[in-house]
Recover the amino acids of this structure.
């Protein structure tokens, strides 16, 4: 187990888990949203032809 | 084993190892407790990748018999940093570049199964114009699920001062000089304008972060229960990167940054001054130079372009910012712009006042450039000539100094708002007082101006000069 040489701070430790989860979820949503948009875009461009 | 009498005072906090001087060489002892991490740093290819792209200071392994304590696993000799500087001496973009480097290193480390165990701004130094991580022992094995232990430190050392400088006042960067472990987030949160709460990155990493710190102040939490995925950790680093990169500060309307636009002496006089400074520089042939009152570094470049490592010190953050941005554009390797006030230089701070050394302790230097400075010291700051000469003679072997008479418009500007209580401010007294501390090697009137440029040599004996030749680091 690595040694902690600095105090990560309880509030900072707890908070980063919350904020990182929030950011990760929004990144995941963004990635999937772009995929859905791309899929729909391709779908409609095919229909349009 | 020899007695550990020459530890570097700023490197005692980490039990993984420490820095020490031996026969004018700087070494780092790596302790047995750090063995696994050190071997992983090298075996994972992380060291090689970071070293080759200039992010981490290069080192070579040395004979273990150089170790200063029995706890040693390795002794390494890191590449020398020509001049050590501190976050409170950096301009906005220097601190921002140091912050972005720290995050880039963390991303690279995570890709190699390691993580930064601290994110101290003091671990970054500027070498050949670029920020570099100098603490080889800053890495640890990444444990899946474990949050970033250095998140709080990163926010305090980098994000908070950058946000305060960009969104409130550039001078608040000086708070890092008072708070050794970075700006407390509750203080940053109180000082930042309300509108920063509307910015998602600052709302989360500073304002809400500060509230969380306050909420959990006295509450014990089992850290093992707080886990986050590798993906979430990367998302956090990206979020911090966007927060730092999204901050902007552009110097405008400052007194000094526009100095060269406002001076009334002719372009020809300026060229003549450059020619004379270059001539005196070649005559003195220094190994390192400090340009005090360097402004945007027009004259510091004369030394840097000769390949002489040059520190360009100025009190004005806007001038230093302009200088640094120019250095970055040009890839200047020998010029280090820094914010500093020679009338109140950086003191020694931290434990025993010696963890971070004072500006003067980081000298002496071979040559000081003091151009268009003496009237600010003598008239603007009421410093008698002997005080100025005394300090410079202790700090440098050579001094290139410009004397500007009272009739010059720049001196008249200083005297416009105050009573002239400086009857002794004249060339004769200047020469007389400075001659007590220096030999006058050369003096030349700058053509097409009323100014005189002097090349002076400190009267310090050969013996003292030898004793002073301690390597800087």
């Amino acid at each position: 187990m690595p040694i902690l040489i600095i105090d990560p701070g309880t509030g900072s430790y707890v908070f980063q888990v919350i904020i990182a989860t929030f950011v990760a979820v929004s990144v995941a949503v963004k990635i999937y949203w772009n995929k859905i948009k791309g899929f729909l875009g391709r779908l409609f461009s095919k229909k349009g032809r | 084993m020899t007695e550990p009498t020459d530890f570097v005072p700023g490197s005692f906090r980490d039990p993984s190892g420490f820095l020490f001087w031996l026969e004018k060489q700087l070494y780092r002892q790596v302790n047995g407790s750090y063995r696994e991490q050190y071997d992983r740093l090298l075996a994972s290819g992380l060291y090689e990748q970071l070293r080759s792209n200039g992010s981490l200071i290069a080192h070579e392994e040395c004979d273990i018999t150089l170790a200063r304590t029995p706890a040693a696993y390795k002794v390494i000799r890191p590449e020398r940093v020509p001049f050590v500087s501190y976050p409170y001496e950096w301009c906005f973009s220097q601190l921002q570049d140091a912050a972005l480097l720290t995050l880039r290193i963390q991303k690279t480390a995570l890709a190699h199964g390691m993580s930064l165990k601290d994110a101290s701004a003091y671990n970054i130094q500027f070498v050949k114009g670029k920020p570099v991580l100098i603490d080889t022992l800053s890495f640890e094995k990444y444990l899946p699920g474990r949050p970033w232990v250095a998140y709080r430190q990163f926010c305090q050392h980098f994000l908070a001062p950058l946000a305060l400088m960009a969104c409130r006042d550039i001078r608040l960067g000086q708070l890092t000089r008072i708070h050794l472990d970075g700006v407390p987030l509750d203080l940053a949160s109180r000082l930042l304008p309300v509108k920063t709460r509307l910015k998602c990155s600052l709302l989360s990493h500073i304002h809400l972060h500060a509230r969380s710190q306050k909420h959990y102040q006295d509450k014990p939490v089992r850290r093992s229960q707080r886990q986050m995925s590798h993906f979430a950790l990367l998302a956090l680093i990206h979020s911090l990167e966007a927060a730092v990169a999204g901050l902007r500060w552009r110097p405008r309307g400052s007194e000094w940054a526009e100095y060269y636009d406002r001076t009334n002496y002719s372009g020809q006089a300026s060229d003549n001054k450059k020619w004379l400074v270059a001539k005196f520089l070649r005559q003195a042939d220094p190994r390192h130079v400090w340009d005090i009152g360097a402004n945007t570094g027009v004259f510091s470049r004369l030394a840097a372009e000769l390949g002489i490592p040059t520190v360009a010190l100025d009190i004005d953050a806007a001038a230093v910012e302009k200088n640094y941005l120019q250095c970055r554009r040009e890839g200047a390797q020998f010029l280090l712009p820094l914010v500093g006030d020679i009338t109140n230089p950086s003191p020694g701070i931290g434990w025993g006042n010696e963890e971070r050394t004072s500006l003067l302790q980081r000298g002496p230097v071979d040559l000081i450039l003091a151009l268009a400075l003496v009237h600010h010291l003598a008239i603007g700051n009421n410093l008698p000539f002997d005080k100025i000469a005394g300090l410079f003679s202790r700090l440098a072997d050579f001094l290139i100094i410009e004397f500007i008479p009272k009739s010059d418009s720049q001196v008249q500007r200083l005297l416009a708002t105050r009573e002239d209580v400086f009857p002794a401010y004249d060339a004769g007294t200047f020469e007389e007082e400075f001659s007590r501390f220096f030999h006058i090697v050369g003096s030349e009137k700058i053509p097409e101006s009323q100014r005189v440029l002097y090349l002076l040599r400190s009267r310090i004996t050969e013996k003292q000069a030898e004793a002073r030749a301690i390597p800087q680091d």
